[in-house]
Amino acid sequence: MSDGDPKVAIACQGGGSHTAFTAGVLRRLFAEPDLNGDIVGISGTSGGAVCALLSWYGRVHPDRDSGELLRDFWAELAARRPAHQWANAAVQWGIHLGRMGVPLPEQSPYYSPGSHWGEGEFRRLLGRYVDFDAIPELLDGTEPALLLSAINVLSGEFRIFREDEVSPDALLASAAEPHLFEAAEHRGNYYWDGLFSKNPPLKDFMTAEDCPDPDEIWLVKINPQERARVPKTSAEIADRRNELSGNLSLNAELRFLQQVNEWIEEGYLPDQYTHTEIERIHFARPDLHWRTKLDRSPEFIERLIADGEAAAESFLEERAVA
């Protein structure tokens, strides 16, 4: 990178299986030999946290590649084996029946064998692609910052896990959707899905003392901000409520960054503060309802990855002519 390259942070919003799109975006971005930007940080929430970790790990590990890690992880996460296909079909049928108004028994993840099995599978899958014990040896102070978000269930406080404390527990904390998993325990505290907190972390790039303030943040956005019509069916209302909830913290952080930019332009802040532009890469399938965030069928995952690669290609082309 040249001294004139902008400092760039990449932020990955959460969204379950929809973040296969994010995997495609990151695969294409990191395949570019010259991004015209110096990556100083990567953040993520829930499924976005997994993509952030894999892309970060591929950049700091001398023998791993971000694109290959993202491709192989999502290929294995897709429901290909019979047991996984059965579980995915059961989830999709349950969702379909619920949308039809068929009453279904509710079961807490604390008493669900399927929840415990899914947590174990998630941990084993992470361990196959990331050697968490080796991460401390990879940290020399020159690597991009890694920020993964979760929320403390009991205190309601946001939690950011950094690269020197990342672990399977930390990833599960960011991805522990409360209807699917027990609250994730980490050092005596209990966490839920980061979708309830920072989705994804943005202003933490500016407040982290060891991370250079980025000139640009590339936001991979999964939840649609706008809809063309008012939702009326129960399913549509649930979909839109989920989207709005997932965007609440994001919009608050975007407003904060906009305010800081205005203060900088008006000369209210010292020169060390950095004006930060937000560039968005939008999810290419906003027509999908939120329940498809639980769909792990191989065809669905592969299509979302291809959509992400195409969206990143368009993003890079637009930057090249700007």
Q: Ends: how far apart?
A: 19 Å
Given the C-alpha coordinates, what overall shape results? globular
Compressed to H and E, one letter per element, the order equals EHEHHHHHEEHEEHEHEH
Mean pLDDT: 85
Characterize the main sheet. Answer: 8 strands, mixed
- Unreliable stretches covering 5 or more consecutive residues: 88-104
Helicity level: 40-55%
Helix vs. strand class:
alpha/beta
The count of β-strands is 8
Rg from alpha-carbon coordinates: 19 Å
Secondary structure elements and pairings:
Layout: E1 7-12, H1 20-31, E2 38-45, H2 47-60, H3 66-77, H4 82-99, H5 113-129, H6 135-138, E3 145-152, E4 158-162, H7 168-175, E5 184-186, E6 189-192, H8 204-207, E7 216-221, H9 234-265, E8 277-282, H10 298-321
Parallel strand pairs: 1-2, 1-7, 2-3, 7-8
Antiparallel strand pairs: 3-4, 3-6, 5-6
Could you walk me through the main structural features you see in this protein, from its secondary elements to its overall organization?
Helices cover 45% and strands 14% of the residues. Strand 7 (216-221), helix 9 (234-265) and strand 8 (277-282) form a beta-alpha-beta unit. Strands 1, 2, 3, 4, 5, 6, 7 and 8 form an eight-stranded mixed β-sheet that branches. It is an alpha/beta fold and 322 residues long. It is built from ten helices and eight strands. This is Patatin-like phospholipase family protein. It holds the Pfam family Patatin. One of its GO terms (biological process) is lipid metabolic process. Keywords: Lipid metabolism.
